[in-house]
Amino acid sequence: MSSLVIGMAKNKFLLNKIEQDFAPYKKILTTLGKSNPRIVVLGADLGNSTEIDEFKNRFPERFFNIGTAEANEINIAVGLAIEGEIPFVHSFGVFITRRVYEQICIQVAMQNINVKLVGTIPGLTSRLGPTHQAIDDLALMRTLPNMTVIDPADATEISQAIPLIAEHQGPVYIRMMRREVPKIFDSKKYQFQIGKAVQIQEGKDIAIITSGIMLNQALTATLKLEKKGIFPTLLHISTIKPIDKPAILKLAKKVKTIITIENHLITGSLGSTIAEIIAEKGFDITLVRMGLQNEFATPGTPDYLFKKYKLTDDNIVDKVISALKKLNNDKLKIKN
Amino acid sequence: MAKSVIELKKIARKIRVLIIKMLTEAGSGHPGGSLSIADIITALYFEIMNHDPKNPKWPQRDRFILSKGHCVPAQYAALALCGYFDEELLMTLRKFNSPLQGHPDMTRTTGLEISSGSLGQGLSVGCGMAIAGKYDQKDYRVYVAMGDGEIQEGQVWEAAMSAAHYKLDNLCAFIDYNKLQIDGKVEDIMNVSPLQSKWTAFGWNVLEIDGNNMEEILNACYKAKNTKDNPTVIIAHTTKGKGVSFMEGVVGFHGVAPTKEECEKALKELQEEVI
Ligand SMILES: Cc1ncc(C[n+]2csc(CCOP(=O)(O)OP(=O)(O)O)c2C)c(N)n1
Ligand SMILES: [Mg+2]
Q1: Residue B79 sits in a domain of what CATH number?
Q2: Closest-CA distance of chain A to residue B225, Å
Q3: Which of A23, A311, B102, B148 has the fewest other C-beta atoms within 10 Å?
Q4: Domain containing residue A159: CATH number
Q5: Nearest-angstrom CA–CA distance, A152 and A176
Q6: How far is B105 from chain A (nearest CA, A)?
Q7: What domain range is A171 assigned to?
Q8: What do you get for the CA distance between the two ends of chain A, in Å?
Q9: A94/B154 touch (CB, cutoff 8 Å), yes or no
Q10: Mean pLDDT throughout A179-199?
Q11: What pTM value is reported for the model?
Q12: What are the pLDDT digits (tens) for B62-85?
C-alpha cells in the first residue's frame, strides 16, 4: 500500500498522510470483550489468521475453536445468539460466506438472528489463490434479507464499526483486513456510521464511488487528477447494505458519469447497487464499474492482482479522463 | 515393475528434498503436511497406482485426489519425478502464471484429478469417481488423502456414509494423522478420535499404520485392494514435518516456508539420513 501524502487535509475527515495500524481488529475485539461479557468469539482453526488469538487468551471461557467445520461453527453461533450471547464468527471471507451459505440464509438471515460474521482477507488481498479469494462474499451476503453488509476502508473504520456492529440488533457481515492495515480516516474527526456514506471531495460531471480498501487508490488517483486540473466527486461507501440512498441520489442529480470501484466482482455489490438505484430513478447517467469482471482471479500477490485486474490509481485516472473526454466529445485538452 | 522398498524410500527422500527447495524458493507454502504425506504419495505414484505419465488422461488410470490441497507441493514433486512435467518447473511454485500454484488447480497442472484448497470436499468427489468406475465397469481405483484437521468438516462424514452405502471397494482413503492442524493439536482444537471405531461404525474397512513407514503403507494398500464390498480407510499415524528434525511436530511449520538457512539445514539432514 502506498504511504503517499494524501495532501487532502482540506477534507476534515482524512489524515494528512496514510498511516499503518497493526491488527486493529485484534485490539478492538479485545476491548469490546472487556466491556461486554455477552460477546463470544468462534473460530475455525484460523485463530491467528483471523486475529482472534488475543481474545482467546483474555477470555478463554467465551472462546470456541470449532475446528475445520464452518457449517457447525455458524449453527453453534445461532444457538448462542438465540440464548442472548453476541457471537462474532470467524474464518476467511470465502469460507464464512460461500461454504455456509444455506446455514446463514436459513438459520441466521431468515430468522434475523444476532450473529456477526467476520470474513478475513477480502477479495484480491488474499495471496492464497482463487479458493481463498473472497470476490463474491459481498454479493452473497447482500442478497440476503435482514443482513447488514460492511466493507471497511481502513483501520479507523474497523475500530469504529465493531462496537456498532455489536450494538446493532441483527445479522451483520463485515470484511476484515489484518496485520498492517492502512489508516486513512482521522479517528478524532471521523465517525463511521452503519448505512452512511462519506463525501470526500465535491466535484462536477464525474463521480467516483468506492467501497472498502479501494478508497486508498481512489485518493491517490484524485491527487493525480488534481494536478491535471480535474476534480471528480469522491464518495466512499463502506456499508454496502443498507446503502446510503439519499447520498447517492443527491450525487446523481449533479453528475453525468459514475465510476464505481470495488475489490470484488462487479456483479452483486457496489456497482450493481448503484446501477439499480440510478436505473430505478431514471437518471441519465453513464455507469462505469471497475472491479473484477466476469472471471475468477488468478493466484498472485495483492500488488500483482490489483495491476492485472486494472484496479490501480493510474487505472482510475485513465477511466476518469476517458469518461471526461467522452462527455466533451473528445475535444478536451488535459494537462500532463 | 515393482520397486524395492529401499528404492521407494530414496524417492520419498528426493520428494522431501524437492519440497524443501520449492517452498524455500517460493518463500511461502505448507511444509509440515507436505512432509508428513510424502511417503504415502511416494507409495501411490511409484508402486501402487496404475498410471501413465505419457497419457495422463488414460481412462483406466487409478485416481489420486489430494483433498488436503495445501500440501500439493508433495504431489507436484511426485508428478515431476514420474515425468508428468519437467522437474525444473517445480522451482516456479507459486510464481505468477506458473501452472504450479499454492493449491491444486486441475485446469493448470497435468496429472491433477481435481482442484482443491477448500478442505473437506475431496472424499465426496472420490466417491463420485468410484461410482462412475463401477457403473462403467472400469477397474481403476480411487485414492483420497485427507488431513486429520480436515476430517472435522461434516461433509467428510457424509461422504463416508455414501462410500459404504454404495459399497465402494474401489475407493481407498488415507488420513494423514499427524495430530496437528493450524491452531494447535487436533485433540485440543476439536478432537477427532477415536478414529478406528468411527470409521468402522460408518461401514469402512479400517487399517491403522505408521504412515511414514513404507512397508506398512504398501501392505495396507495391498490389503485394501483385496477387500471386497467395503471401502478402506488407512489411518496413517504420521509426524508433521517428517524428516526435518526442527520441523517435526512443530505447529508453526504448518504454513510457513523455511528460510535459506533452515533450508540448508534441512537438506543436510535429509541427505545424511540413513536409508
Ligand atoms: C474449508 C476450509 N476451511 C479452512 C481452511 C484453512 N485451512 C487450511 S489448512 C487447515 C488445517 C488443516 O489441518 P490438517 O487437515 O490436519 O492438515 P495437515 O496437518 O495435514 O497440514 C485449515 C484450517 C481451508 N483450507 N478450507
Ligand atoms: Mg494434521
Answers
A1: 3.40.50.970
A2: 30
A3: A23
A4: 3.40.50.970
A5: 8
A6: 9
A7: 18-185
A8: 25
A9: no
A10: 97
A11: 0.94
A12: 999 999 999 999 999 999 999 999
